[in-house]
């Protein structure tokens, strides 16, 4: 710095008035990040059973989404949140935090068991349908409530987490453990992906039934990386042969300017969605070439999409008003969102930063940046004199270095937004208010914490192991919607029960029950599939056939064959009033395997509810 030649009191004066604020800010930001990273890792641990301080009752290895029990009720374990969180834990373990290994071992066991749990998405055997279930109770039992199911990202994400850990085991002389204990779990998940990738499902936000970019991108990585692991372990991967087809399909989300996050659906949205930055950071490969068709962060299409997405949020929230184009803003799921007020999310705002750190790391590792017509607008905001050309890495004053600095500063500015709206105790909720910045929705969201840690690692130059994107099988010239039938076997070596083909019988519950607007009917019963008398786990009925002539509530469900069960209907009241239960206990004998469907025609018997008029 030229100031160093100035001596005497002038130096003191100058360094106060002219010291680069950018450097000071970076130092402050670094110390914030270091503190918040530690808080975040602890926040994650607090939400994992059996010892997590904030989640009493959670089973070993189960990651609870948030301790929040109502508004929103997040005291459940989601396959997606858990897999992404455990991926962070596995990466931290690889970076040297060896004390985290017990969490990974618990997770492996918990997921092996969970794979076999029959649930409203279906059973594990014979065709793996149950693997598409998005969420379970925190003790690993089924969740019966109405939900956006199936969600097909879960098996892919879980496979990725377990593949990363298996690769570590192989490198450390424990191939046998990887092959015999962990591979059977991965194999079930890859079977599911290979069989169902071309079927629609709900997106990661659990709202849209269609084809989701995030899901497909992770599915591709799971199959491609799974094929490599199978080769090292000398086992067969059923389903991995679908990887090139999935890669082909992935290309179809690009519309020439941005990634349309949900396709095969017409929901009136633009398609700009945080989905499309969470996907690229999940498949990030430090060794990738930027023109890889896997949509890496440094890819021109990913960058064009990044700009379009971030720009959509610039005008969406009051707290983003007046922020210039070269500075980060608060980012949410998508601008049309209304869930819990449709606010910005911590995990997506830090994901935006992570995406940019990833991209910079890739350009620096390749020593080159190609700016093309697709990515030009992204760079113009940050480095106005940029042109369409190749920039080679050179000295500290070369345009390459300056562009890298500009993108890094841009990344930091997203973290500064997260910092600005993080409360003093460092706790991270799901959302923050679009007008005031105050934390909102689920408190201590595990995923918010996990996302903070991964962002902090990328900023600090720590990258997960490569998944060899340079060597993947290319997509065919013409896409086709093929499928490989899966092979599903309980992962007993990891602790899964040795379930045999379970059979279930279709039961239709019809009950005539006059209800007021705001009242709902559930069926609750003695068996696991009827929620074992827990009202919170009863099966909701629908009022689609309710008329003035017939107050019909109905549900078509599947119950375990050959069992005698007891059940009652329950009324859910409005305004926080206690539920009202029927006064009779009904008995149903579910027919044995292969038996015919049963329709129950019941009439509500017992006390009725009253609107609380709130
Ligand atoms: C709960 C889901 O978790 C959330 O993502 C969704 O927006 C709401 N349900 C509304 O469908
Ligand atoms: C709602 C989010 O939309 C979904 O992605 C997440 O899995 C659940 N909350 C639980 O955190």
TrEMBL record:
Residues that hold substrate according to the record:
147
Reactions mediated catalytically:
Hydrolysis of terminal (1->4)-linked alpha-D-glucose residues successively from non-reducing ends of the chains with release of beta-D-glucose
One cellular component term (GO) for this entry is: fungal-type vacuole
Leading EC class: hydrolase
Where in this chain does the record put each CBM20 domain?
499-606
For this protein, the record's InterPro entries field holds: 6-hairpin_glycosidase_sf (IPR008928), 6hp_glycosidase-like_sf (IPR012341), Carb-bd-like_fold (IPR013784), CBM20 (IPR002044), GH15-like (IPR011613), Glucoamylase (IPR000165), Glucoamylase_active_site (IPR046966), Glucoamylase_SBD (IPR008291)
What PROSITE patterns is this protein classified in? CBM20, GLUCOAMYLASE
**Protein name (Swiss-Prot/TrEMBL):** Glucoamylase
According to its UniProt entry, this protein's organism is Cadophora malorum
């Amino acid at each position: 710095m030229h100031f160093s030649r100035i001596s005497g009191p002038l130096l003191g004066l100058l360094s106060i008035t002219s010291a680069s604020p950018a450097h000071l800010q970076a130092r402050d930001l670094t110390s914030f990040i270091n503190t918040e990273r530690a808080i975040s890792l602890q926040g994650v641990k607090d939400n994992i059973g059996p010892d997590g301080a904030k989640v009493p009752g959670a089973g070993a290895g189960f990651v609870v989404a948030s301790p929040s029990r109502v508004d929103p009720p997040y005291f459940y374990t989601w396959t997606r949140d858990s897999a992404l969180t455990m991926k962070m834990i596995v990466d931290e373990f690889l970076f040297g935090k060896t004390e985290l290994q017990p969490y990974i071992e618990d997770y492996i066991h918990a997921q092996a068991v969970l794979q076999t749990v029959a649930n409203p998405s279906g059973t594990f055997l014979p065709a793996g349908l149950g693997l598409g279930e998005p969420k379970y109770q925190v003790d690993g039992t089924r969740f019966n409530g109405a939900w956006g199911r199936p969600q097909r990202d879960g098996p892919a994400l879980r496979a990725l987490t377990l593949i990363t850990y298996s690769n570590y085991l192989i490198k450390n002389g424990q191939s046998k453990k990887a092959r015999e204990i962990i591979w059977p779990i991965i194999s079930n998940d890859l079977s599911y992906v290979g069989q169902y990738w071309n079927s629609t499902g709900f997106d990661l936000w659990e709202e849209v039934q269609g084809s989701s970019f995030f899901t497909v991108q992770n599915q591709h990585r799971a199959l491609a990386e799974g094929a490599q692991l199978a080769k090292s372990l000398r086992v067969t991967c059923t389903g991995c042969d679908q990887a090139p087809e999935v890669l082909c399909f992935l290309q179809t989300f690009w519309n020439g300017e941005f990634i349309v996050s949900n396709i095969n659906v017409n929901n009136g949205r633009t398609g700009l969605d945080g989905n499309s930055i969470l996907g690229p950071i999940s498949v990030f490969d430090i060794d990738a070439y930027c023109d890889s068709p896997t949509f890496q962060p440094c890819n021109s299409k990913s960058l064009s999409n990044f700009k379009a997405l971030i720009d959509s949020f610039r005008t969406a929230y009051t707290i983003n008003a007046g922020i210039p184009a070269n500075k980060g803003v608060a980012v949410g799921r998508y601008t049309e969102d209304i869930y819990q007020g449709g606010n910005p999310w911590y995990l997506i705002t830090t994901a935006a930063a992570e995406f940019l750190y990833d991209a910079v790391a890739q350009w620096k590792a390749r020593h080159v940046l190609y700016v093309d017509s697709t990515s030009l607008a992204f760079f113009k905001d940050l480095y106005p004199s940029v042109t369409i050309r190749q920039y080679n890495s050179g000295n500290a004053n070369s345009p390459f270095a300056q562009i890298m600095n500009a993108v890094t500063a841009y990344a930091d500015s997203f973290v500064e937004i997260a910092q600005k709206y993080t409360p003093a105790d460092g706790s991270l909720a799901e959302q923050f208010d679009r007008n005031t910045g105050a934390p909102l929705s689920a408190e201590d969201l595990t995923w918010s914490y996990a996302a903070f840690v991964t962002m902090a690692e990328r900023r600090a130059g720590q990258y997960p192991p490569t998944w060899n994107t340079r060597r993947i099988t290319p997509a065919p010239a013409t896409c086709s919607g093929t499928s490989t039938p899966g092979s599903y076997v309980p992962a007993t070596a990891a602790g899964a029960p040795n379930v045999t083909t379970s059979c279930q019988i279709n039961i239709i519950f019809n009950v005539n029950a006059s209800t007021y607007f705001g009242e709902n009917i559930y069926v609750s019963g003695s068996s696991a599939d009827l929620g074992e008398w827990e009202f919170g786990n009863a099966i909701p009925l629908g009022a689609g056939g309710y008329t003035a002539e017939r107050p019909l509530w109905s549900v078509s469900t599947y119950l375990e064959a050959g069992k005698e069960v007891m059940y009652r209907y329950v009324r859910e009241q409005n305004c926080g009033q206690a539920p009202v239960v029927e006064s009779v206990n009904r008995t149903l004998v579910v027919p044995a395997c292969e038996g015919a469907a049963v329709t129950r025609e019941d009439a509500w018997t017992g006390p009725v509810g009253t609107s609380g008029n709130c």
